[in-house]
Amino acid sequence: MSNKVYITNQQKAVKIPSGLRILIRRSCNAVLDYEKFEGPAEISVTFVDNNMIRELNAQYRNKDMPTDVLSFPLGENGIYDKNEDTGAAMLGDIVISMEKAMEQAELYGHALQREVAFLTVHSMLHLLGYDHEAGGLEAVRMREKEEAVLVQLGLPRTVSYTTDEL
Q: Which has the closest alpha carbon to 129: 78, 165, 61?
């Protein structure tokens, strides 16, 4: 029984590149493998625009501004509700602003795919209970895990995707 990643596009601001959904599924699975997560899991990923993520950010985090990704974990302390039909652990929801992801990809000079993979990996770690808000060791550890998973996906941070040099 494999993991299920439900992907929904609720925005028209950014065209979803071909292969992005596959990359997101790979990113989710890579985190679950890396964290040695037992049994099948379910994750929902939703693409939104800046407006929609700003509303969610204001509603849930009292920050009235757009952000790149929001994580809505369903579990606590490693305990997750199970989907009655499938027996899969329901990890929660990942909401990605495709507008913000596009802005950041351009800012960092890498592909939109690389940015979305990073945001997905980052958010998956939140769904599994990691937190970086307090900073310190926890934030460092989370960053190390992100790097390790991205390297496994063939997307190390050192790679530059700018086409100018070609």
A: 78
Structure tokens at 17: 């590149």
Three-state SS for 18-78 is CCHHHHHHHHHHHHHHHCCCCCCEEEEEEEECHHHHHHHHHHHHCCCCCCCEEEEECCECC
Counted domains in the chain: 1
Classify residue 165: in a domain, yes or no. Answer: no
Residue range of the domain that includes 119: 4-152
What residue ranges of the chain have pLDDT lower than 50?
161-166
Enter the pTM of the model: 0.91
Is residue 94 within 8 A of residue 44, CB to CB? The reply is yes
Round to whole Å and give the CA distance between 26 and 45: 13
The angle formed by the CA atoms of residues 59, 61 and 63, to the nearest 5 degrees, is 85
